[in-house]
Amino acid sequence: MDYPVVLAMEDFVPVALTVTGVLLLSKVDDLDTRLVRTAALLLGLGGFAKCGWKLLIASTDIDLWVMPLLLFPLLSAGFLTLVKALEPRLPIAAAAGLWMAALGTSFAIGDTLPMLILTIGVSTAVAVYLFRRHKLFLLWIAGQYALGPLGGQEHQTIALQWIEQSINTASQAVFAFAAWRVLTLQERKRQETPA
Cα separation of 127 and 130, whole Å? Predict the structure, then answer.
């Protein structure tokens, strides 16, 4: 299947929306700004590595095969960092150990599946924590879960790829909007609280 350049370029949109949403969360008062910004960086690097690879394939037929392999290690590290920001009691050693175990297992079996499973688990944990702040985060994670069955289909057509990209973009737009709502609700409370 020839991957269209326009589809490869659109792949950057959900990544930008995710990074935007996480950066908005970095302004929430009770979250560690450094951790949240680090999470945004890791998530962005993972997403942009995969998008960049797709764009290279679509526009030049150059296959830098290592680029898509960075996706799940960086996404899982980003979501683990975000979980740590949302739940400060999480021991750093436990999060790092979990990540290293998944990475080591991936290398041992020659498959990214352990990193994918970790990414699903920690992104779900992020959704649970964020759902407490705004109910829209439930739509975000539902959209993420919808991608699994579509991406797992053996026969990937361009039309199916567009459907997947549309769901991913809409999901990440919901994430960014929900993060913005958390921030605006915080500002409203601040204004309503007497000094």
Answer: 5
Contact 176, 159 (CB under 8 A): no
Q: Please give the full DSSP string across 91-158, using - where no structure is assigned.
A: -HHHHHHHHHHHHHHHHHHT-SHHHHHHHHHHHHHHHHHHHTT-TTHHHHHHHHHHHHHHHT-SS--H
Give yes or no for residue 166 having a pLDDT over 90: yes
Q: What is the pLDDT of residues 45-81, one digit of tens each?
A: 999 999 999 999 999 989 999 999 999 999 999 999 9
Q: What is the phi/psi pair of residue 175, to 5°?
A: -60, -50
Query: Which residues in 4-43 are b (16+ Cβ under 10 Å) and which e?
Result: eeebbebbbebbbbbbbbbbbbbebeebbeebbbbbbbbb
